[in-house]
Amino acid sequence: MSYNLLKGKKGIVFGALDSNSIAWKTAQRCYAEGAQLVLTNAPVALRMGEINKLAEECGNAPVIGADVTSNEDLTNLINQSREHLGGNLDFVLHSVGMSLNVRKNKAYTDLNYDFQHKSFDISAMSLHRLCQCLYQADAMNEWGSIVALTYIAAQRVFPDYNEMADAKALLESVARSFGYHYGVKKHVRINTISQSPTRTTAGSGVKGFDGFINYAEKMSPLGNASADDCAAYTVSLFSDLTRMVTMQNLFHDGGFSFTGVTAEVIAQMEK
Ligand SMILES: NC(=O)c1ccc[n+]([C@@H]2O[C@H](COP(=O)([O-])OP(=O)(O)OC[C@H]3O[C@@H](n4cnc5c(N)ncnc54)[C@H](O)[C@@H]3O)[C@@H](O)[C@H]2O)c1
């Protein structure tokens, strides 16, 4: 069901790798709600070609490659998007994350720091870089909205989330700090959504993911939030209905973040 919440709005969606990606579902939902889109991902991810299916579904949205660690790529993406969309942007989704140490099976107590720099650059500093490129190019409309995706390991320890916990803590801090400056300058809102574990390429890379996602399901009064649920919540943050929400880390996790224990987990422990 569509409510036309984004009618007339224009935005960029980062991070749709395949149909499981949170960004994929969000692009579909934004389009269904009346938005005009530009899709982007790292040039290497575009080679898979999957994103072209999504682009077609979203009114032949242009697909523009950009590595989030490159100022030049981001500037080019913003310029081309404004040209294509015929004006400034109303929303941007940052749905990007990657951990080299996790990929290489390095333990948190044995990190490779070159990998760590790269992981932080891609997963956290990229939000600052993106916001700064948008800010300096004055590419957002008044009351625009920027959303980045995060995970509760930024606040509480989930050992196998590894260096990504630190990357997410930095990402959430950037959303707060840049949210202040962009709010004062142009009423642009910046928030992070702290999403339940979700079966995607990035999610499944976390060691012991099956146990992790089942545990979260049992610890959440509403169950885990799906990627579709996340897309719907993100649309609400891009809409005019949430104009005064900024600099927040918003838990979207079926109640997991504030649950001490559940009857289901107790029952499991008593077995
Ligand atoms: N899946 C989960 O359990 C979960 C939970 C909470 C938060 N998140 C966050 O949601 C976001 C989206 O992840 P997802 O789960 O949809 O997985 P995904 O693998 O589908 O998406 C991650 C995206 O990041 C992109 N990316 C990686 N390096 C890049 C670079 N250098 N430049 C541009 N793009 C790059 C990938 O190409 C991919 O499209 C991430 O920030 C992730 O940490 C995921």
Biggest beta sheet attributes: 7 strands, parallel
CATH topology: Rossmann fold
| Total DSSP helices | 11
Termini, distance in Å?
43 Å
The tally of beta strands, per DSSP, is: 7
Shape: globular
Q: What oligomeric state do these chains adopt?
A: single chain
The H-and-E topology, N to C, reads as EHEHHEHEHHEHEHHHEH
Average pLDDT, all residues: 97
Integer-rounded radius of gyration: 18 Å
CATH superfamily: NAD(P)-binding Rossmann-like Domain
Low-confidence stretches: none
CATH C-level class is Alpha Beta
Q: Which SSEs are present, and which pair or pack?
A:
Blueprint (H helix, E strand, L loop, with lengths): L9 E5 L7 H11 L3 E6 L1 H4 L4 H7 L5 E3 L5 H15 L3 E6 L5 H4 L9 H24 L3 E11 L13 H23 L2 E7 L5 H4 L4 H10 L8 H12 L10 E4 L10 H8 L1
Parallel strand pairs: 1-2, 1-4, 2-3, 4-5, 5-6, 6-7
Helix pairs in contact: 1-10, 4-6, 6-7
The structure holds nicotinamide-adenine-dinucleotide.
The site of nicotinamide-adenine-dinucleotide has 26 residues, from helix 1, strand 5 and helix 8.
